[in-house]
């Protein structure tokens, strides 16, 4: 005799019951005495006949498993809001279908090949879900002045599914299902691998040189802008677009840059990985549904085909990686690197071009604000402490890496932070530690295969491990991320030679000298190929991202600092007691004390003495910091080695600055002479 427990049965609402039988196949009682599979009819019992029922919860309102599953998800269209009619009688109300069509047309235009007549056909939704296949589709027809040689190609017949502005949860599912190396860590972050490249590839950056950019941009020695021609850009663009369209699906993010509403830039990122989409979701400003509805045409588009290499037979290509910027077309193409930082910093380069045109200074700096509204900027090259020191529990975080300084004050360009994770500890950096939770992207970290606990000390994949999280994950983030004019401008250098003082007060000319020099010891890994700290000079603390000559940015900074009475500081977050190898990195708690003393104004009025060679003003005392470390010579046991190293570094500064001696800053040459005199003297 069969015995069936109630919970294995489910009513389908018309007197039939499906249930799992002993051998795993479903038997159905069909109401005529015999089950379809030939077994005797099973009588179901009515209430009150002695059978035990568990009626404590009402039955599920579904007749099939599929229906049950469909109940689980509520219809929501955060990316396709229905336009309201608040606009009054004359408001144009687009139907949802019409709106989706327009949106798809815009995406289709982004993805269009510029050499073929038709395509691509784009459709919204996940190809894995059959119910989401072609309802609304769009493709662009091009009728160029030339006669296309191919009127129909297979690629024009195929659908490209578009996963548009997915939520972090949806992107997690996509990553875990389709991207090897995606895992959920014990704190809920998405662990991911960026592939062979674990840092940016500045030598593979190309910028289109045309009639306009030839005059406008900084080219030649020391410049990060390596030229390519328009045609080669189109070759790479076509390569990227064809690659993306060959996929079953692409991710599209429509987002913003810059919290200053007057200078907001609309960006579209087309990519092939959920990792890239979630990274940009975190790093760019996330639009509200209303803002997205009125998004329209993007101001700038990234085609990230990083999985696919560039073709080395193509002119200007010197490796399989190419990051190409075309300012006239307002487009960027990425081939041959999946390192997500290329997108972040590619857009930053664009801002370094667009903002100065509007008399706005773009800055590779962190930024925070005290309770009294005092704003500090933290300039510095990669790994010098912008994120670590701007994330300060006692202050409001405006942003950790990219800002604008306008007539009205400062604004963050981004919507998220990108922290270095190597040796991250809860004690030293609690706010960053706590931000690494659900929604955060953890790149190239190593974790315990069972507990999924991250080992932040592990460099097996790279030293440049990173976390990208939305800025609101930092509890005292200031949203919107804008603030008044800066009071302090802190230049961070991580001095691997161990001869720069932990803190120096700078006059304006010195500030400009060190800003233009942009010295640090590059910390391993952020730029591909660098494995040990090496002395580096990078103009404006970000030569890899600036588009105009460094003196243009320097002149603007000098103007603004003078106008708003900001004080400049040089803070060495690097070595003390000897060079890299023999000395040690200055303890983070000491650096924090120094920064506190800058913020609260106490350091401005401290007692100072002038150093040899660099002529830096150094305080004799800082609260909470051992006084002997304030002058580096005290921390070296070998004084001769110290002096030699000091002169060596000074020589490097001098040699580096030779490139800038013939440039003028400001209307007269006066500041230039002062700046030249503000360097090391020996
Ligand atoms: N004294 C110190 N001051 C600042 N940071 C320190 C100090 N000692 C060690 N560190 C470590 O140095 C790293 C600074 O990295 P951070 O993420 O702040 O760099 P960043 O300037 O933001 O660079 P990027 O532009 O690449 O994001 C952190 O890992 C931090 O823990
Ligand atoms: O771009 C990156 O990879 C990280 C970063 O912020 C920098 O290098 O300045
Ligand atoms: Ca950072
Ligand atoms: Mn940076």
UniProtKB/TrEMBL annotation:
InterPro entries: PEP_carboxykinase_ATP (IPR001272), PEP_carboxykinase_C (IPR013035), PEP_carboxykinase_N (IPR008210), PEPCK_ATP_CS (IPR015994). GO terms for cellular component: cytosol. It is found in: Cytoplasm. Its main location: cytoplasm. Pathway: Carbohydrate biosynthesis; gluconeogenesis. Keywords: ATP-binding, Cytoplasm, Decarboxylase, Gluconeogenesis, Lyase, Nucleotide-binding. Residues 117-142 are annotated as: Disordered. The keyword ATP-binding applies. It comes from the Eukaryota. One of its GO terms (molecular function) is ATP binding. Its EC number is 4.1.1.49. One of its GO terms (biological process) is gluconeogenesis. CDD domains: PEPCK_ATP (cd00484). It holds the Pfam family PEPCK_ATP. It catalyses: oxaloacetate + ATP = phosphoenolpyruvate + ADP + CO2. The keyword Nucleotide-binding applies. PANTHER family: PHOSPHOENOLPYRUVATE CARBOXYKINASE (ATP), PHOSPHOENOLPYRUVATE CARBOXYKINASE ATP. Belongs to the phosphoenolpyruvate carboxykinase (ATP) family. HAMAP family: PEPCK_ATP. This is phosphoenolpyruvate carboxykinase (ATP). It comes from Prunus dulcis (Almond).
